[in-house]
Amino acid sequence: LERKFLGRIQLRMGPMHVGPFGLLQPVADAIKLMAKEDLLSTWVDRTVYWIAPLAVFVPSFMIWVTIPLARDLVIRNLDMGLFYIIAFSVLSIVGLVTAGWASSNKYAVLGGFRAAAQLISYEIPLILAVLGVAILAQSLNLETVVDSQASVPYALIQPLGMVLFFVAGLAELGRTPFDIHPAESEVVGGPFIEYSGAHWAVFFLAEYINTFAIGALTVLLFLGGWLFPGLPGDVTAVGVLVLLIKTYLVVLLIFWIRGTYPRLRIDQLMSLGWKVLVPLAFVNVVITAVYLFYGWPAWTLTLMSLAILGATFW
Questions:
Q1: N or C terminus: fewer CB in 10 A for the chain?
Q2: How far is Cα 68 from Cα 293, in angstroms, rounded to an integer?
Q3: Reduced to 3 states, what is the DSSP secondary structure of residue 70?
């Protein structure tokens, strides 16, 4: 989907030859990567080197334990579901740092440190954006959060929170324009530079799992999840279809941004995080708490969010 979509943006066809319309290209890529020789430098710390891809992949897989695809269609609905997701998602930072360190390559170490600096910085606005939703819903349970959007999605009540979550989520994924840690032109591939074959593929499999997770969480937290006006949200098949359509629209937006924005420099990236997103995230929490405490109508929070966003962009 991404390669076809980017191809259309760049006025080319994308994959065309493997399978009908090139749809089997990912299968061909998987076979190539699995069959590719797995080279290993003499100087690597073998134990840590092998564990690092798993340390990145497993947390991205584990968060799906509590992400619902429809009402009651979830592996385990946790009352502290949002807390669980945030707690597991930050663990992948350890995998990126250890991948760079274990590779015994100065460029890989530099890429690992850049990844850690970026991800730690953008975790703060991401967590605070989630906290704003938890304040509105008065719950950390994802099903309760979706149910509380039955009348109005939080994207309309708290647009500032959605923008913060989406931008910080993009940075967490390490995708353009936030692909600082694998920036090939600067650090020749980041912490993955010494990896090849299947082990290299695991890092990017984790990236795509996380891309879909950020899309699904954006939908669940701000776009009403499986709810849609006029459709029965209690019917599982309808709920799954609505959630998937919304999620794929968000994922296409992520691909669109990759196809149209240039990469930020490391100083621009850190400035955006610490000077813009972190202060805005604290402001978002404060105005949400004030709105709720004084019992103001929902449109007041919308106006405050839009005014702050407008002033920021101006």
A1: C
A2: 30
A3: strand
Tokens of 24: 């089997």
How many CB atoms are closer than 10 A to CB 171? 25
Spatial neighbors of 64 by CB under 8 A, at least 6 apart, are 75, 209, 213
pTM of the model: 0.93
CA distance 191 to 132: 33
Answer for the pair 192, 99: CB distance below 8 angstroms, yes or no. yes
Instruction: List per-residue pLDDT tens for the chain, 314 residues long.
Output: 899 999 999 999 889 999 898 889 999 999 999 998 888 888 888 899 999 999 999 999 899 999 999 888 899 998 999 999 999 988 888 999 999 999 888 888 888 888 899 999 999 999 999 999 999 999 999 999 999 998 899 999 999 999 999 999 999 888 888 888 777 667 677 888 888 888 889 988 998 999 999 999 999 999 999 999 888 878 889 999 999 999 999 999 999 999 898 888 888 999 999 999 999 999 999 999 999 999 999 999 999 999 999 999 99
Q: Which residues pair with 73 in a beta bridge?
A: 70
Tokens 């990469």 sit on residue:
263
Q: How far apart are CA 65 and CA 74, in angstroms?
A: 7
Q: Which two tokens stand for residue 139?
A: 């719950």
Q: Are 178 and 264 in contact (CB under 8 A)?
A: yes
Which are the contacts of 240, defined by CB distance < 8 A and separation ≥ 6? 69, 70, 73, 226
Contact 199, 39 (CB under 8 A): no
